[in-house]
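Hi there,

I know you've been waiting on this one. I reran it after we fixed the sequence typo, so this is the corrected version. Both the input and the resulting structure follow.
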Amino acid sequence: MEDILLHLLRTTPQIHEFSVQFRQTDSAEWFYIRHKLDQSRRKSVKYGFVKLYVDHDGKRGHAEFIAYPSHTEEDLKHLIDDAVASAKLIENQAYVLPEKAEAKPLLETVDRIELGKKIIDFTFAMEAKYQGEINSFEVFTNTHTIRFVNSNQTDVTYGVNDAFLEMIVNANDGEKEIELMREWRFASFDPRQMEIRYEEVFREARDRASAMPTPDLKKADLILGGENVKELFGIYRSATNANSIFNKASTFTQGQNVQENAVGDKISFTMTDRLAASCANAPIDEDGVLLKPVKILDQGFFTTIWGESRYCQYLDVKITGNLKNMDVASGSKSLSEIERSNAIEVLDFSSFVVDETSGDFGGEIRLGYLIKDGVKTAISGGSINGNLLELHQNIELSVERQDIDRFSGPLKIRIADVVVSGITAA
C-alpha cells in the first residue's frame, strides 16, 4: 500500500504538496475484575494518514484522509480525487511545507507485554500496601512504528510507545459506598511517580466517603496538583501559539512581561520534542519540521512564538514546528510551604473547565481539603472559579516535580484569591 499510495500522490497533477504518516500499532490489553483476569487480547493495526495540498487562485487548500492496507489502487485513487475536490473548497493564505529534514531516528519502543505485566504486578502491590480496594482495572500497552514521508523528500522512521491504565476503586465508611475512577496515560513506567498516584486515589476514595460539605469561603488560596496543573497551564501554551496569535484569540504580545508586578513565582516554560513520560514524543512534526526545544516564557516574559509551520509563516516568525510537550520550570516553594494553612486543595473535580482563550477556569468540587490551623478536613460539593491571567501575579509553584503525558512541571501550585462557592456557611 505504501509504494502505491506514494506513487499516486506524486503523479496526481492537482496535488502540489503532500505528507503521509504510515503507522503500525501493536497493542496488548488486559481487563481485570478485582484480582481475576477477565479478558486479554493482542492486535496490530496499520494505516496511512494523508494530508494533501492544492493551490488555486493564489490560495491554498488542504484535505486529509486515512488509507488502509485493504484499499486497492482504485480505492486510493477515489480517496485522492475526493480529497483534491475538498481541498479546492478551502481558501487559506498561501504557505509551503518545510524543506527536506534530516532527523535522527527516535527509537523508544519497549516490550509491550513485559510493560503490561509490570503495571499489573505493581497495581496489586500498591493495593496491598495502601489497603485499597480495586473494583476493576484495564491496562493497554502500545508500540508505534511511524514512517513520515512528504513531497519535499523527507523520509523519517521512528518508534514510540505508550500505556494507558484505567482503574475503579471502592471505599465504604459503613454507611455509604464510594466509587472513584482514574485513568493515566504515560510512555515510561516510573514506579516513584506511579506510587504517588496510587496512594492518592486510595486515600481519596476513603476520604470521599467521610467528606464534609464545602464551606462558603467567598475567596481563598487554591492548591491544585496533578493533571489539573497541566490543564491550567494550557492557558499559557495556547496564548503563545502562532495559531492563537494570528487568529486574534490571544492577548499576548511577543516581548511582553505577562506577569507584570508579580509577587509570587515567575513562570518559565519550554515547548519540547521529548519528555520522559510523554506519549507524543517525535523528532519531526506532521508537516516535516525538525523539532527542537524552544523557550517560550522566561521569568514571565514572552520570548518566542511557537507553532505549526503554516501560522509561523503567516506571522513571519521562525518556524518551530508543532511541539506537543510542555516543560514548566519548578518554583521556589516546597510542598509543605504550598500546603500551609488557610487554603483549599482540590484533588478531584466533577469537571475542571479551562478556557484557554480567556484564562477563566472553574469546576465543581468532587473531593478536596480545607487546610486550616494545620488540619486537613476532607470536603465535597460547591465550586471554585477564577481567571489565571488576572491571578498569576500571586502564584506559587512547588520545587517538587511531576512527569505526566505531554507535561513536566511543578507537582502542585497555589493561587491566591480564588472564588470558592460552598454549600454551607463557614
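Quick highlight: The mean pLDDT is 94.

Best,
R. S.
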